[in-house]
C-alpha cells in the first residue's frame, strides 16, 4: 500500500516539499481555521500511483488528543458514495437490478409495484424518486422508527414521476437498510464484506457503536457563537439510515477509498462500476448556484450516489456530507487521476469554500502542467 506524506502547512514530514499551489492552499486553509477557531480537520490530496499528501489540524475535542491519520469521523452523506458502489456490486453479481421495483425489495410496504409511479432501486440511489426534497428528514431527526417513516413514504404523492426530476432524499435510503434486515443481514455487514475488508480499510465502520468503540474518534462540535464551538453528543437519528449517512472513516480509510475509485484496485472496484455510478443521469441545475461554487460550475448532474460537476470544463465527481457536529467532502477528477478528501469535526460552512478553492487551484496547476508538457512535446518534435 502506498503511504502518506504527513504535512504541516508548508513541509511534509519526510522533508519533501509540497507543490506550491498545495502549500499555499494548506496555509490559507489553516489560517482560516485558526481565525474561526475550528476544532479540527484533516484533508488529503491523492494522485494515482503516488504518495498521498495529508494535512492535519486541531484536536478530537478541546482537551483531547490531536487529530491524526487514524482519527475517525462521521462521513454523513458521503456514505452514499459507498452505498452506490455496494449496490453496483450487487447488480454486477446479479443479486439485484437497478430497475428492480422497491416494492420487491421491501414487500411489507405499500410502494407501487408497477406503472409510472413504481420506484426502482436506481431512483433511490440516483435521487430521482420524485418525492419532495428531503422528505421526512424531520421525522428522522425526531427519531421516528424507520418502519413508520417508510410506511409514510410509501403513501406519499410524488412531485414528478420517478426518474424525471432530481429530488434529494435521506429517509428513502431506509429501504436499503430494511432490505438487508429482511435478508437476515445488515447494511454494515454487507459493506464490510464487499468494500471495507477487501480494501483493507483499518478504521472504516458503520454505526454509532462502532464509531465510539474507536480509540481515536473526533467528537462532534456545534457553533455557539461566531468563533465558539461546543462538543455535543453523537446523535442516533441518521445512523438508523446507514445507507444514507451511517459510515465512519479515518483519512487513511478515505485515501484508500479514493485510490480505489481512481483505479488502483480494479479487482475490487472495476472501472466499469466506477463509470456506472458516476455517469451523469439527472440534471441538478440548482447546484450551479451554490455561493462558493457558482463561479466555477458550468453544469451539474446527479449520477448514482455521486454529484457530477462541470468545473470550468473539467469533470469532477463529488459528494458532501453534513450531520450534527460533522462535515465531510470527497471528490475526484477521473481525467487527471487525482482526488481530495476533507473531514471536519465541526458544522462549519467553511468546508464549502475550502473544497471549491482546492479544486480551482488544483485544476489551474494541472492545466499549467498540461501546457508545459505540450510545449515540451512540440519542441522535441523539431
Question: What descriptive keywords fit this protein?
Answer:
13 helices, three-stranded antiparallel beta sheet, 382 residues, alpha+beta, Beta-lactamase
Describe, in plain words, how this protein is organized in 3D:
This protein is of the alpha+beta class and 382 residues long. It has one domain (4-83, 186-380): DD-peptidase/beta-lactamase superfamily (Beta-lactamase, 3-Layer(aba) Sandwich), CATH 3.40.710.10. It has 13 helices and 14 strands. It has a nine-stranded mixed sheet, sandwiched between helices. The chain is globular, with a radius of gyration of 21 Å. Residues 8-15 have low confidence and may be disordered.
Fold blueprint:
Layout: E1 4-7, H1 20-35, E2 40-47, E3 52-58, E4 72-74, H2 79-92, H3 102-105, H4 121-125, H5 137-141, H6 146-154, H7 174-182, H8 187-196, E5 205-206, H9 208-213, E6 221-225, E7 228-231, H10 242-245, E8 247-250, H11 251-261, H12 271-277, E9 282-283, E10 297-302, E11 307-311, E12 314-323, E13 326-333, E14 338-344, H13 350-380
Parallel strand pairs: 1-3
Antiparallel strand pairs: 2-3, 2-14, 4-8, 5-8, 6-7, 9-10, 10-11, 11-12, 12-13, 13-14
Helix pairs in contact: 1-13, 2-8, 2-12
Amino acid at each position: 500500500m502506498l503511504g502518506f506524506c504527513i504535512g504541516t502547512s508548508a513541509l511534509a514530514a519526510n522533508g519533501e516539499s509540497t507543490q506550491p499551489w498545495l502549500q499555499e492552499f494548506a496555509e490559507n486553509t489553516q489560517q482560516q481555521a485558526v481565525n474561526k477557531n475550528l476544532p479540527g480537520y484533516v484533508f488529503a490530496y491523492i494522485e494515482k500511483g503516488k504518495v498521498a499528501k495529508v494535512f492535519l489540524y486541531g484536536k478530537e475535542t478541546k482537551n483531547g488528543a490531536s487529530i491524526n491519520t487514524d482519527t475517525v469521523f462521521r462521513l454523513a452523506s458521503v456514505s452514499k458514495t459507498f452505498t452506490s458502489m455496494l449496490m453496483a456490486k450487487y447488480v454486477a453479481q446479479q443479486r439485484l437490478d437497478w430497475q428492480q421495483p422497491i416494492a420487491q425489495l421491501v414487500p411489507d410496504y405499500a410502494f407501487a409495484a408497477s406503472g409510472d409511479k413504481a420506484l426502482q432501486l436506481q431512483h433511490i440511489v440516483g435521487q430521482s424518486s420524485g418525492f419532495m426534497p428531503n422528505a421526512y428528514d424531520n421525522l428522522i431527526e425526531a427519531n421516528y422508527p424507520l418502519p413508520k417513516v417508510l410506511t409514510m413514504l410509501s403513501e406519499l404523492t410524488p412531485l414528478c414521476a420517478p426518474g424525471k426530476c432530481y429530488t434529494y432524499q435521506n429517509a428513502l435510503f431506509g429501504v436499503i437498510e430494511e432490505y438487508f434486515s429482511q435478508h437476515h443481514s445488515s447494511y454494515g455487514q454487507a459493506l464490510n464484506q464487499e468494500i471495507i475488508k477487501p480494501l483493507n480499510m483499518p478504521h472504516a465502520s458503520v454505526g454509532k457503536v462502532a464509531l465510539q468503540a474507536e480509540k481515536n474518534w473526533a467528537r462532534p462540535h456545534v457553533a455557539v457563537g461566531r468563533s465558539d464551538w461546543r462538543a455535543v453528543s453523537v446523535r442516533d437519528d441518521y445512523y438508523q439510515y446507514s445507507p444514507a449517512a451511517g459510515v465512519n472513516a479515518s483519512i487513511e480509510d478515505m485515501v484508500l477509498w479514493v485510490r480505489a475509485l481512481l483505479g488502483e484496485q480494479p479487482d475490487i472496484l472495476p472501472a466499469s462500476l466506477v463509470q456506472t455510478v458516476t455517469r451523469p443521469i439527472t440534471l441538478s441545475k440548482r447546484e450551479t448556484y451554490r455561493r462558493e461554487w457558482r463561479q466555477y460550475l458550468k453544469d451539474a448532474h446527479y449520477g448514482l450516489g455521486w454529484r457530477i460537476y462541470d468545473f470550468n470544463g473539467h469533470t469532477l465527481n463529488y459528494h458532501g456530507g453534513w450531520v450534527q457536529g460533522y462535515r465531510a467532502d470527497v471528490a475526484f477528477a477521473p481525467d487527471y487521476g487525482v482526488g481530495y478528501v476533507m473531514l471536519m469535526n465541526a458544522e462549519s460552512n467553511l468546508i464549502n469554500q475550502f473544497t471549491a478553492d482546492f479544486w480551482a487551484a488544483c485544476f489551474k496547476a494541472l492545466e499549467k502542467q498540461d501546457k508545459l508538457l505540450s510545449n515540451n512535446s512540440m519542441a522535441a518534435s523539431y
